[in-house]
Each structure stands twice: as structure tokens, then as C-alpha cells.
Amino acid sequence: FFFFFFFQAEDGIRDAQESRGLGDVYKRQYMNCWSGRMRLVEGSVELSIDATNEAFNQHVSAAAQKYLMRPNSTSWGIKQMKAIVYGRRFRMQRSAMEIQLRDNRTFLVNFSHDDGREVLARFRRANPAVVIEKGPPGRQLTRMRSTDRWKSRSASNFDYLMELNYIAGRSTQDITQYPVFPWIVADYTSEELDLQSEESFRDLSKPIGLCGSASRAEEVAGRYYDMEEMGDVPFHYFTHYSSAAVVLYYLLRLEPYTTMQILFQGGKFDHADRLFHSIAATWRGVTKNIQDVKELVPEFYYLPEAFMNHNMVSFGTKQDGSNIAHLSLPPWAKDCPFAFVYKMREALESEIVSAKLHNWIDLVF
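-> C-alpha cells emitted (365 positions)
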């Protein structure tokens, strides 16, 4: 069989691709594939990585070659599999499956043609207790009773958004389809964040590309109609609210995303002034620049380390002479990433957001 394989390791996200047999594998690490072999042997799934890479990859510049690392072989017991979600997207085809293990590791595997169904059947025979998730996302949403639990406050806003991302096919195992979260807070300049004031929150009834001044919305709409009149295929925005570039922009300070950013930029970091250096500056960009419409990633609401340069990476010097290290936080965070994330999560779970979050969900999902 031929499939891609992705897994969450202790040092970050790695992935891979497999074929023939439960046979040849192509394992992808840092956005590139690496060939290997996967086998179901005596109750275990074994993944062996080839010494010579035979997988198809996009071109990697000579300067970035040294950042490509051969992944380690791995294995897991067939009884460790807790659930399999069949029909995940890979390269625009719904031919992949996501395997969840009881130790919380996740493997995203892509098959060519109909091989996935046969492998799914083998896994089911080997472990009848494994939960098989397949079918339209709407059916999964109903079966899991996600919306009912959210409406009754049995599930938090964060948990519900994670479930929607999961059901929609987004995964932390694929940065091109990474979970997307909304901007919530709109005040990154005050000494104190007032979560009782509507002024502190973003308008969740509008896409991020329409948040900001009224003139920005008029400019976006005007461009759409101008293109339509010229006979071109019209669109409102030049880019997407979530992409691999957006994920790497936000998670720059965490491995493996630090290394992935270097690979993404051809062997070096992007210009320092374009890196994620200030939350206030990024918010100004998404509310004033019509070419900047990126939403957030889940880490803004639970992972303070994403905004700390614990690895002491030299990201470069900005034009004003300042070096980029820890993220520049709003005054109300008191220079503490933990306080920043706590306030962001508090805002996400607030009554004001709970009453309006469904608007943003309808826009995105």
C-alpha cells in the first residue's frame, strides 16, 4: 500500500508516506517526505525509515539542505490504537486516515487509490475495539453531540473550537491544515484589559479581513467589484486566514517550527521586521493591511512557551536596531507570557464571546 504517515513526537511534528504491502513508506519531517516501510507484525505496527530517501519532495535549496534530517524509525502496539478517522485530506484528496493512540500520539497516514480501505479493514480485524470515525463531518458533529454540549456549557469555547477543527479535518499533524482560532481581544495597548467592555473585543460577526476601519471594508469590496467588471475571477482577499506560512509565523519560537521556518524561507529566517515580534504590531497589520487576514492558532489560548525564546535563537535585528527574542506583549500582560495567555483564555471564555462566537464559527466552518 502507498500512504503518507504523520506523527506527533516529543520534539515536534514529523510525518511520512507509505506504500505496498503494509509496505513502502514515505515519511515527512519538516515539510518533506522520507521513504520507508510500514508493517503489521505480531500485534505491532512497525515503521522503518530508508537510509536513502526515495520519496518525492518539493525542491529544497542548497542552503536549506543541512536542516533536513532523516527521521527515526518507530513502532506502536496494535492495541494502543484508540481511534481511526478515515477520510482526512492530503494534497486535496480525502484519502488519508488519522490514527490516535492511547498515549496521545497521533499518526496521519495517506493512501493512494483504495488501499486505505483494505488497511483500515486489517487494523479493525487486528483490534476490534478501535473506534472508526468516517462519514460526513456533519454526521460526526451530531454523533458526538458537540454543539449540544457546548450550548449547555458542558464544553468550553476552547474545547468546542478544537472539536470543530478536528471534525473539519484540521490537525496539528499537518501545518497546511492546522487548527484555526479567532482573534478575540482587540485591545493590545491598555495597561489593564477590561473584559466587561465590548470595546475590548473583536467583532466576531465579520471575517478578520473586514475588522478595522470602515474604509478598509470599502476598499475590500471595491476591489472585488472592480475585478468582476474587468472580467477577472473576483475575490476579496489576496491570502487565506490560515496557512502553513501563518502557522510558522506564530510558532517561530518553538521547535520544530523554528527549523521549519528556516526551511520555508530557503535556509534562513525571514527579514527580522517581518517576523512575529509584537502582538500589537500584528494586530495593527490584520486590521489595517488588506493583504493581511490571518487568524490565530490554538497556542494563543494555552501555551505561554510559544511566546518565549527559551532556545535562545538569534532571529536577527530589526531596522530600528533592536534584536528579536521574546514576543513583545501588550501592557496588560505585564511582560509575562503566562499572564498574557491567561487573559487571552479568560477573554475567549467570557460571556461576551460566548454570546457571539457562533457568528465566527458560521463564517469559518
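The radius of gyration is 22 Å.
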